[in-house]
Amino acid sequence: MENMDNWNQFLIAQGARSTHVDGAVPDTNIADFGQTLSTAQLQDGFVSTVTDQGLIGITGDDAATFLHSQLTNDVEHLNQQQVRLAGYCTPKGRLLASFLMWRNATTIYLQLPRTIQPAIQKRLQMFVLRAKAKLHDAAGDEASQIVLAIGGERANAALSAWFEPLPATPFSKVEHALGTLLRVADAFGQPRYQWLLSAANALDVWTQLAGTLNKGGNDAWRLSEIHAGVPQISLPTQEQFVPQMVNFELLGGVNFKKGCYPGQEIVARSQYLGKLKRRTTLVSIADTSAQAGNELFTVSDPEQPCGMIVNAAPNGAGGVDALVEMKLAAIEQGASEAGAVRLGSAQGAAVQLLAMPYVLDALDL
Description:
By secondary structure, the protein is α+β, with helices and mostly antiparallel strands. 22% of the residues lie in helices and 30% in strands. The strands form four sheets. Strands 10-11-12-9-3-13 form a six-stranded mixed β-sheet, sandwiched between helices. Strands 18-15-16-17-14-19 form a six-stranded antiparallel β-sheet. The chain has a five-stranded antiparallel β-sheet with strand order 5-6-7-4-8, with helices on one face. Residues 21-27 have low confidence and may be disordered.
């Protein structure tokens, strides 16, 4: 705990600006270091401290089997070199949470927003029953106390001071004496990583990383996730989407060959019967107040919403970039007609569609 206090004091001394989030410890929800990083700065190279993520650890002989029966992805065959996305659904197939998932020799880890972790951890625990599986809050474990995000053109050169070799492909990982390095989805055509390490080790490496890379906090990390096209379910969007609505199967977050899990029949039906008429796409909105859960409207149909913001982050240009879930017809309309989609109402700020980093393989155009 003393090292954590030292780390937080160190960041504040470095110019970190914190924002209040319900459920967050005061002065530890680091938004940025005095400026919002732009997409150009992220592409160039960045390091950010990620303080808004929680971490559930699951141990025990039946840990993989138990999670395999609860999540949208294959857990039983997850090995120690892999990183995967996984969803946790209601019986109606709606996402309660989305996870970044990996494991080591003893523990499977699920990363999710800190604000929903206690409730999700409690819900999962209810279904353990007689399984030999135990859940705990792993964010306090010394080896994973701090999460640093590194990405952009200069990321590999910066990390090579400690890691050789680096994880070769997206969604892979390496273990190291200085912590766990996860390679996640690329953004801007460049690699991105999460480095989980102790507070003491973070103090040792931060200065060198921040001396060569653009320095950011949660806003920078979230903006890079948005431009990678990777959604994260948060408190305002729980139970709003089946996995395909947020492109989860396109990102490898759904395994359609695995056994049953809550909502599996509805998720499968959406896939194979071609009933999905909604997708998530990348946009820019010139309104800094736009946030997850806000509804979107088309000018041509002002009475009913056409979609919802999944995630949003300041873009350094006076607005936000966001992942938005919308009707396919609204996506097509927004792509062909400037100002066709609006925030909050048909008179709200215009929503500008941007190019996605992967192909939206629509199931029912």
